[in-house]
Amino acid sequence: MTQPGVSEVQVQVNYSEVDAMGVVYHARYLVWLDIARTDHLRQAGMSYRELEAAGYRLVVGELRIRYRHPARYDDPVRLRCWVRDLASRRVVFGYAVEHAENGQLLATASTDLLVLDTEMKLTRLPDFVAGLLRPIPDPVRL
Fold first, then answer.
1. What is the pLDDT of residues 90-103, one digit of tens each?
2. Which of 94, 133, 131 is nearest to 110 (CA)?
3. CATH, domain range 7-130
4. Is 19 a catalytic residue?
5. What is 106-125 written as a DSSP string?
6. CB-hemisphere CA count at 13 Å for 62?
7. Which bin fits 127, alpha (ψ -120 to 50), beta or left (φ > 0)?
8. Does the pLDDT of residue 130 top 70, yes or no?
9. Of 19, 74, 85, 138, which one is the catalytic site residue?
10. Pairwise CA distance, residues 77 & 94, whole Å
11. 3-state helix, strand, coil in the chain (%, to 5)
């Protein structure tokens, strides 16, 4: 994590991700948020696979995304992720999607994830996971 509490991962826009207008299709950003979130967990000290093995699931209950500028084929894209809020049964992640070379903000987003057990019932986030996820103020305006 380059900035305390903020993880970064980079992707390159693939041709299959652009639409007929030559820009990244809007739903592709959701995949990128998932990549950023699972990488954030890994950098914090636990993989999503380990979380599942411990009997927990984090499922998206709410998503907000604001598209600001288009990403295009072959653009290098930096995905930044952080924890905005942490409650006993919910984790809120924030995201900044940026052009990796010029720093232009392409999109901002937040996801509210609910904590479920293996029966898919709402449960409490275990202390060992909550201890890895430290909420910080948003580094960009969402």
1. 999 999 999 999 99
2. 94
3. 3.10.129.10
4. yes
5. EEEEEEEEEEEETTS-B-PP
6. 8
7. alpha
8. yes
9. 19
10. 16
11. 20, 40, 35
